[in-house]
Amino acid sequence: MKPQLTLQTPLELPYQEISNYLNKLWISEDKDNSGANTFTLMVWQPAWLEQCLVQKGLVNGPITGNLSPEIIEVAKKFMLDQGLPITTSLNSEELLNLLKENLSNKDFEDFRGQFFESTISTLNPRRLITLAPTLNKNSDIKTFVSAYCPLSDTPAMQSICGDLVVIRGGGGLNI
Known about the structure:
By secondary structure, the chain is α/β, with parallel strands linked by helices. It has two domains: about 5-45 and about 110-170, no CATH class; about 50-100, no CATH class. About 25% of the residues lie in helices and about 20% in strands. Strands 1-4-5-3-2 form a five-stranded mixed beta sheet, covered by helices on one side. The protein has helices at about 20-25, 50-55, 70-80, 95-100, 120; strands at about 5-15, 40-45, 125-135, 140-150, 160-170.
Protein backbone atom coordinates (compact mmCIF):
# COMPACT_ATOMS: atom_id res chain seq x y z
CA MET A 1 0.00 0.00 0.00
CA LYS A 2 1.45 3.36 -0.99
CA PRO A 3 1.41 6.10 1.62
CA GLN A 4 -1.23 8.75 1.53
CA LEU A 5 -1.21 12.26 2.92
CA THR A 6 -4.26 12.90 5.05
CA LEU A 7 -5.49 16.44 4.50
CA GLN A 8 -8.50 16.08 6.76
CA THR A 9 -8.46 13.53 9.55
CA PRO A 10 -11.65 11.48 9.82
CA LEU A 11 -14.37 13.68 11.24
CA GLU A 12 -17.58 12.13 12.53
CA LEU A 13 -20.61 13.94 11.13
CA PRO A 14 -24.35 13.26 11.04
CA TYR A 15 -25.08 11.79 7.61
CA GLN A 16 -27.37 14.72 6.76
CA GLU A 17 -24.39 17.11 6.91
CA ILE A 18 -21.96 15.15 4.72
CA SER A 19 -22.86 16.69 1.35
CA ASN A 20 -22.62 20.28 2.58
CA TYR A 21 -19.38 19.56 4.42
CA LEU A 22 -17.74 18.00 1.35
CA ASN A 23 -18.75 20.96 -0.81
CA LYS A 24 -17.13 23.34 1.68
CA LEU A 25 -14.04 21.16 1.99
CA TRP A 26 -13.00 21.75 -1.60
CA ILE A 27 -14.04 25.44 -1.80
CA SER A 28 -10.96 26.37 0.23
CA GLU A 29 -8.72 24.91 -2.50
CA ASP A 30 -7.57 27.22 -5.26
CA LYS A 31 -9.59 26.87 -8.45
CA ASP A 32 -6.77 25.06 -10.28
CA ASN A 33 -6.53 22.27 -7.72
CA SER A 34 -9.97 21.17 -6.60
CA GLY A 35 -9.15 17.52 -6.27
CA ALA A 36 -9.87 14.68 -8.62
CA ASN A 37 -12.59 15.32 -11.15
CA THR A 38 -13.53 11.75 -11.91
CA PHE A 39 -16.02 9.48 -10.21
CA THR A 40 -17.34 8.06 -6.96
CA LEU A 41 -16.23 4.57 -6.03
CA MET A 42 -18.16 2.54 -3.46
CA VAL A 43 -16.40 -0.17 -1.50
CA TRP A 44 -18.30 -2.86 0.43
CA GLN A 45 -16.07 -3.75 3.36
CA PRO A 46 -17.86 -5.95 5.88
CA ALA A 47 -14.73 -7.81 7.11
CA TRP A 48 -16.99 -10.35 8.82
CA LEU A 49 -14.15 -12.79 9.43
CA GLU A 50 -11.86 -10.19 10.97
CA GLN A 51 -14.67 -8.76 13.14
CA CYS A 52 -15.49 -12.23 14.49
CA LEU A 53 -11.86 -13.08 15.21
CA VAL A 54 -11.29 -9.75 17.00
CA GLN A 55 -14.49 -10.06 19.06
CA LYS A 56 -13.62 -13.64 20.01
CA GLY A 57 -10.20 -12.43 21.18
CA LEU A 58 -8.39 -14.68 18.69
CA VAL A 59 -6.82 -11.67 16.96
CA ASN A 60 -5.89 -8.32 18.46
CA GLY A 61 -7.74 -5.34 16.98
CA PRO A 62 -8.23 -2.84 15.53
CA ILE A 63 -10.47 -3.93 12.67
CA THR A 64 -8.83 -2.82 9.42
CA GLY A 65 -10.76 -4.65 6.73
CA ASN A 66 -7.57 -6.21 5.34
CA LEU A 67 -7.39 -9.97 5.00
CA SER A 68 -3.89 -10.18 6.48
CA PRO A 69 -1.81 -13.36 6.69
CA GLU A 70 -2.47 -13.35 10.46
CA ILE A 71 -6.26 -13.37 9.92
CA ILE A 72 -5.97 -16.24 7.44
CA GLU A 73 -3.67 -18.27 9.70
CA VAL A 74 -5.87 -17.84 12.80
CA ALA A 75 -9.05 -18.63 10.82
CA LYS A 76 -7.54 -21.82 9.39
CA LYS A 77 -6.40 -22.93 12.85
CA PHE A 78 -9.90 -22.23 14.22
CA MET A 79 -11.45 -24.30 11.40
CA LEU A 80 -9.21 -27.27 12.18
CA ASP A 81 -9.83 -26.93 15.93
CA GLN A 82 -13.58 -26.98 15.27
CA GLY A 83 -13.37 -30.05 13.03
CA LEU A 84 -14.23 -28.26 9.79
CA PRO A 85 -12.65 -29.64 6.60
CA ILE A 86 -9.43 -27.92 5.51
CA THR A 87 -11.22 -27.04 2.25
CA THR A 88 -13.73 -24.83 4.08
CA SER A 89 -13.80 -21.35 2.57
CA LEU A 90 -12.84 -18.40 4.77
CA ASN A 91 -16.10 -16.81 3.64
CA SER A 92 -18.27 -19.84 4.32
CA GLU A 93 -21.45 -19.36 6.29
CA GLU A 94 -20.57 -22.43 8.37
CA LEU A 95 -17.31 -20.85 9.58
CA LEU A 96 -18.90 -17.47 10.27
CA ASN A 97 -21.76 -19.07 12.22
CA LEU A 98 -19.27 -20.95 14.41
CA LEU A 99 -17.29 -17.77 14.98
CA LYS A 100 -20.42 -15.73 15.80
CA GLU A 101 -21.34 -18.03 18.69
CA ASN A 102 -20.95 -16.25 22.04
CA LEU A 103 -19.54 -13.03 20.66
CA SER A 104 -19.39 -9.98 22.88
CA ASN A 105 -21.34 -6.94 21.77
CA LYS A 106 -18.47 -4.64 22.65
CA ASP A 107 -17.42 -2.09 20.10
CA PHE A 108 -13.84 -2.43 18.91
CA GLU A 109 -11.68 0.19 17.26
CA ASP A 110 -12.62 0.07 13.60
CA PHE A 111 -10.39 1.64 10.95
CA ARG A 112 -12.20 0.31 7.88
CA GLY A 113 -12.32 2.89 5.13
CA GLN A 114 -9.55 5.09 6.51
CA PHE A 115 -6.83 3.45 4.44
CA PHE A 116 -7.13 1.78 1.08
CA GLU A 117 -5.08 -0.08 -1.47
CA SER A 118 -2.83 2.00 -3.71
CA THR A 119 -4.43 0.39 -6.76
CA ILE A 120 -7.59 2.33 -5.91
CA SER A 121 -5.59 5.60 -5.68
CA THR A 122 -4.27 5.12 -9.21
CA LEU A 123 -7.85 5.38 -10.46
CA ASN A 124 -8.07 8.87 -8.88
CA PRO A 125 -11.61 8.65 -7.54
CA ARG A 126 -12.94 12.03 -6.46
CA ARG A 127 -14.93 10.35 -3.72
CA LEU A 128 -14.43 6.97 -2.11
CA ILE A 129 -17.38 5.71 -0.06
CA THR A 130 -16.83 2.72 2.20
CA LEU A 131 -19.83 0.82 3.54
CA ALA A 132 -18.64 -0.99 6.67
CA PRO A 133 -21.44 -2.89 8.44
CA THR A 134 -20.74 -4.19 11.92
CA LEU A 135 -21.67 -7.50 13.52
CA ASN A 136 -23.34 -5.68 16.40
CA LYS A 137 -26.76 -4.95 14.91
CA ASN A 138 -27.50 -2.53 17.76
CA SER A 139 -24.52 -0.36 16.86
CA ASP A 140 -25.53 3.11 15.73
CA ILE A 141 -24.69 4.10 12.19
CA LYS A 142 -21.78 6.54 12.18
CA THR A 143 -20.45 8.52 9.26
CA PHE A 144 -16.93 9.85 8.89
CA VAL A 145 -15.46 12.21 6.32
CA SER A 146 -11.79 12.79 5.49
CA ALA A 147 -9.68 14.09 2.62
CA TYR A 148 -6.48 12.59 1.29
CA CYS A 149 -3.82 12.87 -1.40
CA PRO A 150 -2.02 9.69 -2.51
CA LEU A 151 1.74 10.18 -2.50
CA SER A 152 3.39 9.38 -5.80
CA ASP A 153 6.75 7.65 -6.28
CA THR A 154 7.35 9.95 -9.25
CA PRO A 155 8.04 13.56 -8.20
CA ALA A 156 6.87 14.88 -11.58
CA MET A 157 3.37 13.49 -11.03
CA GLN A 158 1.09 15.78 -9.06
CA SER A 159 -1.14 13.99 -6.58
CA ILE A 160 -4.82 14.16 -7.26
CA CYS A 161 -6.69 14.54 -4.02
CA GLY A 162 -10.03 13.08 -3.08
CA ASP A 163 -12.28 12.53 -0.12
CA LEU A 164 -13.38 9.51 1.85
CA VAL A 165 -16.79 8.88 3.34
CA VAL A 166 -17.11 5.94 5.70
CA ILE A 167 -20.53 4.67 6.77
CA ARG A 168 -20.16 2.22 9.61
CA GLY A 169 -22.60 0.56 11.98
CA GLY A 170 -25.35 -1.98 12.49
CA GLY A 171 -28.73 -0.47 12.03
CA GLY A 172 -30.33 -3.89 11.58
CA LEU A 173 -28.29 -4.82 8.51
CA ASN A 174 -28.58 -8.53 7.73
CA ILE A 175 -25.33 -10.43 7.72
